[in-house]
Amino acid sequence: MTLAGRLPPISDPVVSLRGITKTYRIGKDIEVHALQGVDLDVHRGEFVAIMGPSGSGKSTLMNVLGCLDAADAGSYVLAGDNIAKLSDDQLAAIRNKHIGFVFQTYNLLPRLNAIENVELPLVYGGDRQGRRERAVDALGQVGLGDRVHHRPSELSGGQQQRVAIARALLNDPAMILADEPTGNLDSRSSAEILAIFQRLNAMGKTVVMVTHEPDVAAHCRRIVRMRDGIVAHDELVPNPRRAEDEIAAGIGAGD
């Protein structure tokens, strides 16, 4: 693994993986070794892209990071919690409290408006205090203050993804985990979403983004490349592309 110009850590990592393995069994005789001893730290305030070809292990790594799947072996510490020692109910609470999810397909409920979709993490967590105000504030952070009562069908793809980002922000998570967040968007909308992530990161948010697109990863401050279930390369990006500059110049991400 190559660490090009990595700075020394200035805080305890938000994510610390050591020796993570994951094997899937297909039928009786076939085993797929998706992760084969992954070591990875992500520190507070980093903007990390995880890349790799199909079968490299990046999707499995994302599922482990998001506590959507459990590793077979190794240790995973997230925001100080040892994930391997938690029950299913505790894992659900961790996902709700410490991880903000942004998916390629937005995962919005069609019958709910923007505010109601953003409120969902608080609804599931039983948190009623200031719920509506917090949802409105989160929508304002992503530039949708004038779309709070619109349903998903009344919003563009880029606007729906903004609602998803607002929802991810609601519990002030330790990490925002974005899975191909620009995969269904045109170039202009992709650049706008990346600009939001860059602004959030500049404010101190930790963002981990899974992507297969080099032009998208070039907007991150660090790129981790997976191959055959291991971290094959890990490097800082000296001068990440600025999405806001590209928008101003009329150039979308990937153009």
Task: Name the descriptors.
globular, seven-stranded mixed β-sheet, 32% helix, 8 helices, 255 residues, single chain
What does this structure look like?
The chain is of the alpha/beta class. Helix content is 32%, strand content 27%. The protein is built from eight helices and eleven strands. Helix 3 crosses helix 4 and helix 5 runs parallel beside helix 6. The longest helix is centred in the last third of the chain and has 16 residues.
Can I get a quick summary?
With 255 residues, the chain is an alpha/beta fold. Helices cover 32% and strands 27% of the residues. Helix 6 links the parallel strand 8 and strand 9 (207-210).
Helix percent band: 25-40%
Rough shape?
globular
Which structural class do the helices and strands define?
A: alpha/beta
Give the N-terminus to C-terminus distance in angstroms.
Answer: 30 Å
